[in-house]
Amino acid sequence: MPEGRQLLEMYRLLRARFGFLDWWPGDTADEVFIGAILTQQTTWKNVEKAIANLKGAGLLGVASLSRAKTETIAELIRPSGYYRQKALRLREACSWVIENYGSLESLFALDLKPLREVLLGINGIGPETADSIILYAAEKPSFVIDAYTKRITNRVYGVPMGISYDGLKQLFESNLPRKTELFNDYHAQMVELAKMHCKSKPACGGCPLSKICLYAAKAKIQ
DNA sequence: GTCCAGGGCCTAC
DNA sequence: GTAGGCCATGGA
User: Coil, helix or strand for A43?
Assistant: First the structure.
């Protein structure tokens, strides 16, 4: 298992290679909230099409989505995949927020821990989506774990692939300064690294982690 | 044609 | 508590 200084070293190397990414604040908290649900198991490029459609229809907001028909939403978000399921979940999640808090801003007034509990109670919002919303929309320090994070820490430090979501999250959070900007950019850096490795084959030639990665010489991170 | 992407839920053991 | 099935479009 990596120690705190190693996790900071990994961030330093990524940051030196990619620069500060200032990732995914979106135009509004509503947009980030909606995007977080749409991007589940889907490429961001397809999500952008869905978001553009929603925007064009004047439905890129929690309040407006809460009033829209599920079928209308489904048609607009079709490019993002799983569109029937996501339309239902989006509308219900937005309705829940409006009915219980009136707006995202009011919901985000909760402290991090209760906010996370509340979000996890909403159908369609699991741990990764909840943490993405907390970090990128509410701008509170909750580290986001995704498939890339798991693969990268496995390749670089031999962290077992079977580690639980909360286990890996704890590893980062207990070893890093609890800062929103750091958590935000760290996650963005790992996605950037994964994208680079997916595009360039064979990978790891220009890998910023080649100095520390266990598999850099013979395997790609993905 | 095949594979899989910035998951999550439900069901079965 | 966890493995397996399901949801679905678009790009490589």
Answer: coil
